[in-house]
Design brief:
The chain is mainly α. It is built from 8 helices and no strands. The longest helix has 40 residues, at 144-183.
């Protein structure tokens, strides 16, 4: 779990840096330049350390460079604010693969409720698409405080809530099915 949070923080570091610098300085050019340089420096640092970088890392850096360049050319922060939406859409598309969640579940859940795991995978994909659309809507306003609230509280909270609901549902389904199997 710690590794997952470290990767997420790494993937969203440029957006966080952009937001912090922009809020402090109100300078789009400075915030974007530092975010783009930071994203490139992350890749260089990882390569120097001999760490293998995944597809998502390269995609994230490419997005930062492309959206950062558009932000610099237009002097409009909304392009950088849209970056998390693209990540949500990409992750949602990956989650459309049938059974993708099965490898992340404990064997007891996989053996007892694979149908629920598959349905949960599609529910997660739908959540990612909804959060991506919400991010674009909020980013289009250009309101950084609203965007920061949406990304941290709404999007983050929705994922935590979805995980908690999924845990409770899986626990109930597995318990009920195991009891029913024991009675039979």
């Amino acid at each position: 779990m710690k590794d997952v949070f470290a990767r997420l923080a790494s993937d969203f570091l440029s957006a966080i840096v952009f937001l912090v610098i922009y809020l402090i300085t109100d300078n789009v050019i400075l915030a974007t330049s530092v975010a783009v340089a930071g994203a490139i420096a992350q890749v260089i640092f990882a390569r120097v350390k001999g760490r293998e970088l995944g597809y998502m890392t390269y995609a994230s850096v490419a997005l930062v460079v492309v959206l950062g360049t558009v932000t610099l050319l237009t002097n409009d922060p909304r392009f950088m604010l849209a970056k998390p939406a693209i990540a949500h859409f990409a992750i949602g598309a990956i989650m459309l693969k049938r059974g993708w969640m099965l490898r992340y579940m404990p064997p007891m859940v996989v053996e007892t409720a694979p149908d629920y795991v598959t349905a949960a995978g599609y529910a997660w994909a739908a959540l990612m698409f909804a959060l991506g659309a919400g991010t674009i809507i909020v980013a289009s306003t250009g309101d950084l405080k609203l965007w920061a609230f949406y990304i941290s509280v709404i999007a983050g909270g929705a994922k935590v809530l979805a995980f908690a609901v999924q845990y409770v549902v899986f626990r109930l389904v597995v318990t009920n099915r195991r009891r029913a199997a024991a009675r039979a």
